[in-house]
Structures are given as structure tokens and as C-alpha cells.
Amino acid sequence: MTAAPHLPVLLERTVELLTDAPEGLVVDATLGAGGHALALLGARLERHGRAALLGVDRDPDALALAGERLAPYAADPRVELTLVRARFDALPEVLAAHGHDRVSGVLLDLGISSMHVDRAERGFSYRAEGPLDMRMDPDLPTTAGDLVNDLDEVELARLLRRFADEPHAGRIARAIVAARPLTSTVQLAEVVRDAVPAAARRRGGHPATRTFQALRIAVNAELDALAGVLPAVIDHLAPGGVAVVIAYHSLEDRPVKRAFAAAATGCICPPTMPVCGCGQRARVEHLVRRPDRPDAEELARNPRASAARLRAVRRLPEERT
Questions:
Q1: Residues facing residue 97 across a β-bridge
Q2: Which residues pair with 108 in a beta bridge?
Q3: Which of 36, 76, 168, 219 has its CA 20 to 30 A from that of 53?
Q4: 107 with 11: CB under 8 angstroms?
Q5: What is the reported pTM?
Q6: pLDDT computed for residue 266 by the predictor
Q7: Residue 134 and residue 166: Cα distance in Å, rounded?
């Protein structure tokens, strides 16, 4: 098999949480190179004597690589393996199309993978010369180049603030508009670097990091997809089922935290009411309330994991009426 270009983040903790889920189907809704899926299939096969996994990814290259890596399990009669090309917020439709309603586990590993960053031709990296693309799904109609060259200054600044909390959004947007047309990643990175005040350039990482993040999120509608999938994840968990989400920045982590907290909240009636009138019941319990982070050993192996934060919940038994 081809060597994997991506190290799965928080692998041991993810596998531990999802292996403890009941026997049944686990969905890896961000399959990527298949690193988490590979470990999950092995662990659940050992625990339950059989394993079922549905892998979902929007990137055909990722699906092909994952299929190659997972081929030995696909040939195992004890394993049910299905790979589907779709964006993760299509989870309800994908499950219905394959005859599933409730599942035992769901994994969402958000953000970008090394297999995207390390391939210059995909246009995700400000360090390597490549086209301004940034599409996770190559069939998407809009590229980062379209946004950089077509949006006006106000729209560009708004995009940088919304999707990256960029403190110098106005300056960067003006510089981009003045430098058009821009066609390459390195070209854009240099424009952004020169637009940022010298004092800010000396702090933290590369000055273009936030700009590239904002463009990537906008091109792939990542936050819209996340908002759409979180309620579906909880709805489709079977009792005892586990959902694990790994986020990499606050724009991803905040909606996960809120969705899990809302689903874990029971009666909200005032304490003075003798009987519950709201009818609200907790649907999940927190397995990881304060996010788990990579330890020093993992960071030494994979410095790109430094921003990762993991949250997890378990679906509670449903009350009988």
C-alpha cells in the first residue's frame, strides 16, 4: 500500500472513545487518508469480533488513498466497509441511501489535512508555489483565486474578519485589490506579508496564515457544513452511541461546544416550579467536556497537531412514554 501522507491526530483517544461505543456502524465523516478509520476497524474488530464502518469524504483523491489503505479490511468477511464521496453535512442522506438510521459512532476530524497542505498543486499552502485553488472537492465552482480577484475590498475584509478574526483585514484587503491579478499562493502570501505592520510580522507564525484559513473556509463552506451536520450527528446516534469531534480553531470548536452543551442540557424550568413544564430532556452526556489536547509526545511526532482539541458525547437511553 502507498504510505500515508497524513498522521491522524489524537488517534489513541479517538480510538478509545469510539471502540467503547456499542457494536454497530461507525461513521468516519471526514475520512481523509483513512488513518483514524484504519485504527478504528482494527480496534472494533478485536473488541466485537466484527466491524462496520462508513467512510465519507468530498475529496476523490482522499477516497482513493483511503480505499487502498483499507483494502485488507474490505476483504475481511467480518468487516462491512463502505466509502462514499460526499460532504459531511450530507450525513442523513448518505445514511438513508445505505439503509441506516441509527449509528454507534460518528467521527468528525475538521479542518485541513497534511495531504492537502503538502501538495502544492492543491493551492492550500502559502509556503509552496501553487495555484490559488484550495478546493477540497475539485468539482466546486469557486476557487480561492476567484475570491481574491473578484471580491471588492469591503467584501474581502469582511471575509477575513469572519473566517479568521484577522486584525489587519482592512489593510490586507486593500493590498490584495491593489496587487490584482493574483494567480499563485506565494504571490498572495507575499502581498499579505507586506501589508501587515512590521511589528505584527515579528510575532507568531506566518502573517498569511489567517488569510489562507479564511479563504479555505469560504471556498469550502466549512462552517456552514459544520452547523448543518452537528444536529444530524446527535439525531442519528443510537443509545450509547458516541460522537467525537476534533477541531483546530475556535471558529470550529465554538459551534461544537454549543451543540453538545445544548444536547446535554435537561430541564430548564425555574427551580421554584414543582413540576417540569418545559419538557426538555438531555439527549447526550459529555464524555469529554474540557477539550483533550495532544500531549508532548504526539506534538514531537506531529507538530501540526498543536491546535487540535477533541470533544465527545454519548447518546443517553431514550425515555419510554
A1: none
A2: 245
A3: 219
A4: no
A5: 0.92
A6: 85
A7: 19
Angle between helices 169-179 and 153-164 (to 10 degrees): 140
Backbone angles phi, psi at 120, to 5 degrees: -55, -30
**Helix axis angle, 35-48 relative to 11-19, nearest 10°?**
40
Domains and CATH numbers, the chain: 11-109+222-315 (3.40.50.150), 120-220 (1.10.150.170)
Cα-flanking dihedrals φ and ψ of residue 246, to 5°? -110, 120
* Three-class HEC string of 206-260: CCCHHHHHHHHHHHHCHHHHHHHHHHHHHHHEEEEEEEEEEECCHHHHHHHHHHH
Cα separation, 24 vs 114, in Å, equals 30
Q: How far apart are CA 194 and CA 17, in angstroms?
A: 45
Q: How far apart are CA 4 and CA 68, in angstroms?
A: 10
CA-based nearest residue to 140, from 32, 30, 60, 230: 60
Residue 307's Cα: distance from chain center in Å?
Answer: 13
Residue 115's pLDDT band (boundaries 50, 70, 90)? confident
DSSP 8-state code for residue 197: -
Cell of 55: 467512510
Q: What cell was used for 223?
A: 462552517
What value does the mean pLDDT take over residues 147-169? 97
Quick one: DSSP state of residue 32?
T
CA dihedral for 140, 3, 252, 255, sign (positive or negative): positive
Whether pLDDT at 277 is above 80: no
Name residues whose C-beta falls within 8 Å of residue 125's C-beta, 6 or more positions apart in sequence: 117, 118, 185, 212
pLDDT at position 3, please?
42
3-state secondary structure of 145: helix
State the angle between helix axes of 209-220 and 185-195 in degrees (0 to 180), rounded to the nearest 10: 130
Sequence-ordered list of residues with C-beta below 8 angstroms from that of 282, at least 6 positions apart, any chain: 263, 264, 265, 266, 316
Please provide the size of the chain in residues: 321
For residues 98 and 272, the model is more confident at 98
Cα–Cα distance measured from residue 56 to residue 30, given in angstroms and rounded to the nearest whole number: 6
